[in-house]
Amino acid sequence: MDAYVGVLADIFGQIKVRTQKPFVVCWVAAPDAALLALRERGIAVLRGAEPAIDAVAGLIGYAEARRCWLADAQPRAALKLPALALPAAGGPVGSAEGARLLALAGVQLAPHAMAGSAPEAVAAAARLGYPVAVKIESPDILHKTEAQGVRLGLADAAAVEAAFVSVVEAARAYRPEARIDGVLVQAMSSGEVEFVIGLKRDPVFGTVVMAGLGGVLIEVLRDVSFRKAPVSVAEAQRMLDELKGRALFAEVRGRPPINRQKLAQLICAVSCFGAAAGARLSELDLNPVLLSREDAVAVDWLMVLDD
Asked: Tens digits of per-residue pLDDT, 31-57?
């Protein structure tokens, strides 16, 4: 095979000159001289069918993403970013303050209220309407369920009062030194599908928005799509189309389809928040976001800022 390296390299070189279409050479067990000769001519060559196909798929995917990104330039430029006054201190942002900031970008969260005592929690539940959830609020306990700091489906004042006491006791047992700010009382929401929307600060691309199947599925399936923030509603729809589990958004065995438009609008709103927050935002997780025929509502959110 080494004896024909020069001849084959010249043939591929002539093809490159005569065509305007990109191509990839699959040369199984290609000698090093072949790789060098073709790459000097600007020709992509890979040792095997699988990497060659992956390379072509990547090239096609990039071209399609670039076309969509350029076509979406005007809608993206028309997006209005919220004016944010972020807390000066870094670290986790309290649920109430995080919700206030997210609301400035039009991010829809489940109705909620903070309570510093059991009577305040009962009063908040009465305003929100039963049933409600009670969740511990502490800057030192970010994952509330691990601390047994969540009670769901509370149907009356007695249940709320007992839940306040139990989640505070559980949080102190889980982390005795934790600062306890009280509890978050939240109206119960329903949905057929759990989703996740997040923001991360990437060292190369800046703020990126993530969307995918949520709840425990985010850890099991990792079925997610990423874009640089902000994204338009149309681009958010394309993110949904990339998910392997997108069939769950349609009608399934009599279960109604979810409202994809509301979900795309929520992804767009979160991405606008991320673009407005800029480098101060370390991460944001909305998980789960409950999807139904009518709406897309986040019931848990965690925001962390850099100093």
From this structure: 889 899 999 999 999 999 999 999 999
What is the reported pTM?
A: 0.86
**Residue whose token pair is 């798929």:** 57
Whether the CB-CB separation of 307 and 208 falls below 8 Å is answered with: no
Cβ contact 220:189 at 8 Å: no
Q: Return the half-sphere exposure (C-beta side, CA atoms, 13 A cut-off) of residue 135.
A: 26
By the 10 Å C-beta count (0-12 exposed, 13-18 middle, 19+ buried), 11 is classed as exposed
The residue assigned the tokens 């979900």 is: 263
d(CA 210, CA 207): 10
Would you call 98 exposed, middle or buried from its count of C-beta atoms within 10 A (0-12, 13-18, 19+)?
A: buried
CATH of domain 193-305: 3.30.470.20
| Domain 111-187 CATH (choose: 3.40.50.2000, 3.40.190.150, 3.20.20.30, 3.30.1490.20) | 3.30.1490.20
pLDDT digits (tens, 9 = 90+) for 180-205: 999 999 999 999 999 999 999 999 99
Q: Are 74 and 85 in contact (CB under 8 A)?
A: no
